[in-house]
């Protein structure tokens, strides 16, 4: 019971910090280039990943070994690109609406798992995916009568993150979670360091404090999430991550003065419900498959 309680505490801490991190990112990207902000964030992330891998069994020598080097590099590049796209959309589209669109990620993961992982999707999950994308259409409903091309930015972010998740599942067949975590941090930091310096911008003193907090939130949120996965099953944690949408919406409305129309709220509820069902159904089928193998 104590371990379960601690797992929930770690999960809620991680989700809350992720939401705060998004709010800080929106503040910074409104004044500085997204690639510059992402580069600073990735430097701290890389140091954290290397430090964590060094303390793992076998240390860096074991963690750096991978049977899928190309896919590990591709994962790192995908997440780096996704972070740049995501923090850009916080300013271009808005924090709340961007997070509502990002919540379609599990639906995209289910779709991409068919051609990439060879998974089968039954009619129940297909129905949930279709209903979920109806919710996405409601979120994207143009207020002016014309589709806003800016919405392509968070949609691209959701797609990039979904590809990252699917490739992470793929490499997990051969590599440990620590190996994947290490490559995520190092590859992303190297990629950002190749591009970010061209977008270097002078930072006012108090924004260095925000950059420092952004780095701390990036490290602490991942640490708490790792601890949560040590104590709870993924099927318990994944639905709870949708609370980030709620926390981000509160920050967006109360701090940044964003407004939420009824279509965004209804669409987000539909997408979240469809996503949770998809996650739950996948868990049920995996558990049934495990029983069949034991039999």
Describe, in plain words, how this protein is organized in 3D:
By secondary structure, this protein is mainly α. It is built from 13 helices and no strands. Helix 2 packs across helix 10 (205-231), helix 6 crosses helix 7 (123-139) and helix 6 (105-117) runs parallel beside helix 13. The radius of gyration is 19 Å and the shape is globular. It starts with a helix and ends with a helix. The model has no long low-confidence stretch (mean pLDDT 89).
Describe the structure in brief:
By secondary structure, this protein is an all-alpha fold.
Low-confidence stretches: none
Number of extended strands = 0
What value does the average pLDDT take? 89
Strand content: under 5%
Distance between termini? Answer: 30 Å
**If you compute it from the alpha carbons, what radius of gyration comes out, rounded to the nearest whole angstrom?**
19 Å
Compute the number of helices.
13
The string of secondary-structure elements, in order, is HHHHHHHHHHHHH
> How would you sum up the major sheet?
none
Task: Label the overall shape.
Answer: globular
**Helix fraction?**
over 70%
| Secondary structural class | mainly alpha
Set out the fold topology.
Layout: H1 2-29, H2 34-54, H3 59-63, H4 69-92, H5 95-102, H6 105-117, H7 123-139, H8 152-171, H9 177-195, H10 205-231, H11 234-240, H12 243-254, H13 262-294
Helix pairs in contact: 1-4, 1-10, 1-12, 2-4, 2-9, 2-10, 4-5, 4-8, 4-9, 5-8, 5-12, 6-7, 6-8, 6-13, 7-13
Brief descriptors of the model:
mainly alpha, 79% helix, 295 residues
